[in-house]
Amino acid sequence: xxxxxxxxxxxxxxxxxxxxxxxxxxxxxxxxxxxxxxxxxxxxxxxxxxxxxxxxxxxxxxxxxxxxxxxxxxxxxxxxxxxxxxxxxxxxxxxxxxxxxxxxxxxxxxxxxxxxxxxxxxxxxxxxxxxxxxxxxxxxxxxxxxxxxxxxxxxxxxxxxxxxxxxxxxxxxxxxxxxxxxxxxxxxxxxxxxxxxxxxxxxxxxxxxxxxxxxxxxxxxxxxxxxxxxxxxxxxxxxxxxxxxxxxxxxxxxxxxxxxxxxxxxxxxxxxxxxxxxxxxxxxxxxxxxxxxxxxxxxxxxxxxxxxxxxxxxxxxxxxxxxxxxxxxxxxxxxxxxxxxxxxxxxxxxxxxxxxxxxxxxxxxxx
Length: 367
Fold this sequence. Notes:
The strands form three sheets. Strands 1, 2, 3, 4, 5, 6 and 7 form a seven-stranded antiparallel β-sheet that branches. A two-stranded antiparallel sheet has the order 8-11. It has a two-stranded antiparallel sheet with strand order 9-10. Helix content is about 35%, strand content about 15%. A hairpin with a 6-residue loop joins strand 3 (about 45-50) and strand 4. It contains ten helices and eleven strands.
């Protein structure tokens, strides 16, 4: 393997608390007919830092003498919500989507024998490319027109996903029929209650408003539930070309507008307040990026939907509330000593801020 290999942005040495037995993984893969040999490079195994949920690692290997980099995904230690870290489900969804949606990584193997590394895990082929973080990478001198093209190309991948018939791919059983919106409002409210800590807000007003304002389902399709630039692999030579969509942990069959609302909860704009921009994780403030309302209009035009600002208000509040729940679940692990990662302490002020942001939208004040 080339000695000039550079670990992808966002990857670094494995944290001691997140280490696993790499030899045991390779031995298990061998029993499945997959022969991989770890290179002797000092950075042969690195951990991706981009997410705060499932743990993700890059393993630099060879197969029959040729380079073959793979990615391993496993749940975090001290997991409280097991259903949110279901490796079998995540592996199965991507395996079934592969024939109709060319942007899922190639699945290599799934292991449910927890004696190997202490948890379920799966391995997939690594997709080389660029994953956008807070800002556009150095050297990417894109014009506003090029940034807009990149943005619309990414949205097109979401629109294509929502056009897939779950039944045709054997994924219909992921859904539970009509009532998706109601189940989500109830379910995320209950998740917040379970993850609540004494120093966090109660979100009572927001939860009651969502329960009272929830619309009927707008449809049922395969949804990603975490569709963002930092879960997307782009072609370094042609940034508007999407090579892969990652992190299918929360994918299911559900309401497409709920998926869009969840995605836009992360969409900070250049004129948003300083705090909201402080935890921005994708370059949505770059000149040329669509605004949140432009994204909704673009999606509506492409799918033939009519989405009024008044109707969109529910999905915007729900998306922000769901983000707050995720942040609180992460903070819960830190609060109870299930992780020593100091970065997780910063999720509590985010939870507090998001409550006030939801309340402003409920009151009719634009964000």
